[in-house]
């Protein structure tokens, strides 16, 4: 299996995406609104 090394920019992008995800979940809980995701090729609404 080939090992892949990330560039510093790729690492920053992934860290930023993690922060956005956390803030999205926090916002959805605060607003008591549904989170829409794709699961098993179907659109699913989830209450966080």
Describe this structure in words.
- It is a single chain.
- This protein has 48 residues and is an alpha+beta fold.
- Helix content is 50%, strand content 21%.
- The chain has one helix and two strands.
- The chain has a two-stranded antiparallel sheet.
- It is flat and about 40 Å long.
Helix content: 40-55%
Taking pLDDT < 50 over at least 5 consecutive residues as the criterion, the unreliable ranges are: none
Largest sheet properties: 2 strands, antiparallel
The order of strands across the largest sheet is 1-2
Rg, rounded, reads: 15 Å
Strand content: 15-25%
Q: Average pLDDT across residues?
A: 93
| SS class | alpha+beta
The N- and C-terminal alpha carbons lie at a distance of 37 Å
Q: H/E element string?
A: HEE
Number of discrete helical segments: 1
What is the number of E strands?
2
């Amino acid at each position: 299996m080939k090992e892949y090394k990330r560039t510093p920019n790729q690492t920053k992008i992934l860290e930023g995406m993690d922060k956005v995800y956390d803030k999205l979940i926090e916002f959805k809980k605060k607003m008591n609104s549904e989170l829409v995701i794709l699961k098993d090729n179907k659109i699913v609404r989830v209450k966080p």
